[in-house]
Amino acid sequence: MSVAWGTVPDWIAGVSTFGALCAAAGAAKAAYKQLTYLRSDEQRRVNADRQQQANQVCVWITADAFGVPHVYFNNASNLPVYGVTVRCRVPWHQIGELPGIVHTELGTLGPTEKPIALYKVEQDLLKTAKDQLIKEEAVDHYRFKEGSELANWQCDTWGQLVERDVSIGVAFLDASNLAWSRHMDGTLTDHRKLGQAQEALLPIALRRTSISPT
Fold it and tell me: N- to C-terminal Cα distance for the chain?
């Protein structure tokens, strides 16, 4: 029995149809990739627009030449931020409702032409060790009392200790009422509510961690 292989025109037509199907599949795949890229690109633009102001808000700690610690805030946008809350991780302060954490609420803070010092946060940090410090004359320089617990932390001044071992984060609402947290490692995260942004600055693990001098 012979097998009907078809005519040459039939083969040509079949190959052409198969080629057309492959081309169509390739075009559809390319179109899908292009659409996915456009959607991703649009989402990136939307995210960038959403966090444009939040990107320009930050806090940090540094010590000056006299060993005095300073907490700085900068809002480089042209609009205020609201409900500003700063939380500092203070490893030697293991008492109170939030062990290891100093919580300072600052309310509304406007745009800053240059970084400003957050004196309230600095004072709240000072309260965690004031009974263990002696103030030097003329400047706000503090040295540790002999035999105090903080004297074991291997730092010459209060400012050096704060700069080295205190981590800081800030939560706030932007001008569009979106909640943000700038974490202790600098990461920026959006949240549904300000309370959630504040809590994000206080991981559960830190609440139960007691840290000893190194």
Answer: 92
